[in-house]
């Protein structure tokens, strides 16, 4: 093994990306390199470290145990570099700068917009650039360094044990049931989710909301009968208003509610979805990112008191 002076941060980042992406071609695409350049850099890193990092596996390559050992230590280096960046940013006493944020659709009006409004008033020199993105895209952007912070549902966030990210819980968002205004159970006292087991349901054919609706109903003891499929709240609530079925709606989507729809808070078995923010580990100590996280927590706390 060579001394630490031979550890090349750029080449270690290429090795980490290969581990995460799985193939040389995907690694090259992610890093805007050619496959041959990726291979050459990793060959040079192996020579510098004096260990074999890759071995053939059919037409692909796999990381050796030595490569995984190197990356376990490299993760601590990457996190420390993020902390170094965060401390350097701390010298900007005016908190000038920009934080790039990716968030899923209902989080934008419910959490991100109130947080940005607060920051514009309290810290006008701090800019927040918002990008709407569902979880898979948001974490790709975060990993690639194209955003600084990602909001998602906890169920679709990286594991809390993932060394690359720090997770910050924000909100436990209740799910209310949307009923047509003339529905027989619209005014029923003590309404529970199981009371709606025989109803036709409206939810997406796939993706997070399909999983959330199905899981909530199964936890209440039944499998929902999907009468119609839609992904957007405007379409879902229009169908509920027309009496075509009922739907679970996150309270964060309250801005989409319609006059002909009754929103009922469920009693004992009310389901919730958990919203988290994630940053690259170490970056949460940067003053600009910390201010944005604080504003998001404040927006989340305001919603929980409503």
Automatic annotation (TrEMBL):
Q: Which GO terms describe its molecular function?
A: DNA binding; DNA-binding transcription factor activity
Q: Which residues form a coiled coil?
A: none
| UniProt-listed SUPFAM superfamilies | Periplasmic binding protein-like II, Winged helix' DNA-binding domain
Q: Which GO terms describe its cellular component?
A: protein-DNA complex
Pfam families on file: HTH_1, LysR_substrate
Q: Which UniProt keywords apply?
A: DNA-binding, Transcription, Transcription regulation
The HTH lysR-type domain sits at 7-64
Q: Which family does it belong to?
A: Belongs to the LysR transcriptional regulatory family.
What protein name does the entry list? LysR family transcriptional regulator
């Amino acid at each position: 093994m060579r001394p630490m002076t031979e550890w090349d941060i750029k080449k270690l980042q290429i090795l980490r990306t290969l581990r995460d992406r799985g193939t040389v071609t995907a690694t090259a695409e992610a890093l805007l390199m050619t496959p041959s350049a990726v291979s050459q850099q990793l060959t040079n890193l192996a020579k510098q470290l004096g260990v074999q990092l890759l071995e053939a596996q059919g037409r692909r390559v796999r990381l050796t145990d030595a490569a995984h050992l190197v990356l376990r230590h490299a993760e601590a280096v990457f996190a420390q570099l993020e902390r170094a960046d965060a401390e350097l940013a701390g010298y900007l006493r005016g908190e000038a700068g920009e934080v790039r944020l990716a968030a899923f659709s209902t989080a934008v009006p419910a959490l991100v917009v109130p947080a940005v409004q607060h920051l514009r008033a309290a810290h006008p020199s701090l800019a927040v650039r918002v990008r709407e993105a569902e979880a898979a895209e948001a974490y790709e952007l975060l990993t690639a360094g194209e955003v600084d912070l990602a909001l998602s549902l906890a169920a679709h966030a990286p594991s809390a044990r993932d060394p690359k990210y720090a997770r910050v819980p924000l909100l436990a968002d209740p799910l209310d049931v949307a009923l047509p205004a003339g529905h027989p159970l619209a005014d029923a006292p003590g309404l529970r989710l199981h009371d709606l087991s025989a109803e036709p349901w409206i939810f997406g054919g796939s993706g997070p909301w399909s999983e959330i609706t199905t899981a909530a109903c199964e936890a209440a003891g039944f499998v929902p009968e999907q009468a119609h499929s839609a992904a957007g709240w405007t379409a879902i609530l229009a169908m509920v208003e027309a009496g075509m079925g009922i739907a679970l709606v996150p309270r964060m989507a309250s801005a989409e509610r319609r006059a002909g729809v009754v929103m009922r808070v469920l009693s004992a078995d009310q389901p919730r979805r958990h919203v988290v923010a994630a940053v690259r580990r170490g970056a949460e100590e940067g003053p600009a990112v910390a201010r944005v996280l604080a504003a998001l927590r404040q927006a989340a706390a305001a919603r929980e008191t409503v």
